What does this fold into?
Amino acid sequence: MAVIAQKCPEIDVTVIDINEKRIAAWNDEDVENIPIYEPGLSAIVKEARGRNLFFSTEVDKAIDEAELIFISVNTPTKTYGIGKGMAADLKYIELCARQIARVAKTDKIIVEKSTLPVRTAEALKNILDNTGNGVNFQILSNPEFLAEGTAVQDLLNPDRVLIGGGIATEKGKKAVDALVAVYATWIPNAQILTTNLWSSELSKLTANAFLAQRISSINAMSEICEKTGADVEEVAKAVGMDSRIGPKFLKASVGFGGSCFQKDILNLVYIAKSYGLNEVADYWEQVIIMNDHQKRRFAANIVKTLYNTVSGKKIAFLGWAFKKDTNDTREAAAIYVADHLLNEEAEIVVYDPKVKAEQIYADLEYLETHSSEEIHRRVKVVNTAQEACKDAHAVAVLTEWDEYKKLDWKSIYDSMLKPAFLFDGRRLLDKEEIEKIGFKFNAIGN
Ligand SMILES: NC(=O)c1ccc[n+]([C@@H]2O[C@H](COP(=O)([O-])OP(=O)(O)OC[C@H]3O[C@@H](n4cnc5c(N)ncnc54)[C@H](O)[C@@H]3O)[C@@H](O)[C@H]2O)c1
It folds into this structure.
């Protein structure tokens, strides 16, 4: 929304959220305090905020005034009832629809921006038409393809913008055109794709499933590499140079995280199952199984390498965010690796340049596998990598922050207990250089 506001100064954009603390942070006088860290974002907010970009908790007022409403609320995996642990929880979406229906006195275009199961627009339309005030609602699907860490660049220069709508009807076509016009301000028409609603909804799940599948595929190869003497970086380079395969998303790692991949694949698996497509469901579920395995075996490898016990040993974690250039920790691999190591009574010291200590503790407490007391006793959060590694038995790289490449690894090595082990879960560091310093080096897929 910030990018739309920046690119379309004639459009008033109001971001509304029921979370008052979040909205207050978005309105913080110091633009560096906005709640999401994303390169380039604070500058855009600074430019547009107060001009045509507003953050507010006044939901009804904003609904009343809007012509286009983007529903962008969370769609987490259900934690209860039918589809628990797999289906998308659509209660927040439904609440939005009911609120819009109750408040709207003029025709509105409703845009699904959240990632949703295919055919959700049908349910939305039903709720809006049956509980509304007789005004006309057009529903569009406009899934978001940005990646955290590169969100601003992705929005300024997207590979494509996808808009699904009821293009068979005159009103539907007009609604699609209205949204196309917004994006066409800065995106070439050839990159704005229009489809039917169901194709658009399903394309987002498909894109995330394919992306996550590539990571699980290369991670599966990383384990074979470790057994056979092949190096996964070399394998990835060799296969990526095949133009049919391409070089992107072939980085072996401790596993993917983030709020989307796991949730969206589980959602896809659930959809397949609900249509009785069990083979399709099993096929995609394997991507998640492989990812969980990768996190577990990374932790198990640390334990095995440290002479089969990490009880009371200090292990430094470099990184907690699920990837670099974001402070988002949802489903971060570090959380699960830490949890496995806590099962083994390890002491963990974390340094991440953008993640706050309270978030790290909250992430571990959320798992409910260790008491809050134990988590606070065994996990410490510090402000530098050097501090994290001092007197540690081992250091594990969990996030590929650029700054970790430039650390003074020699002085880190000197401050650690010997033999000093380094586990690179992101294939970030140069094996030869690190081993020359004296580390016992252990990288995924090598
Ligand atoms: N985070 C990403 O990179 C990304 C990328 C593409 C798509 N998506 C999709 O976008 C959606 C949102 O993701 P997110 O990461 O921003 O989630 P989020 O949980 O960070 O944010 C959702 C916000 O919606 C608010 N909210 C919930 N119900 C509301 C209501 N009735 N009225 C007003 N506000 C309400 C919550 O308070 C919360 O602040 C999800 O469907 C996700 O799959 C996210």
The mean pLDDT is 97. The longest strand covers residues 108-112. Residues 78 and 89 are 5 Å apart (CA to CA). The longest helix spans residues 197-228.
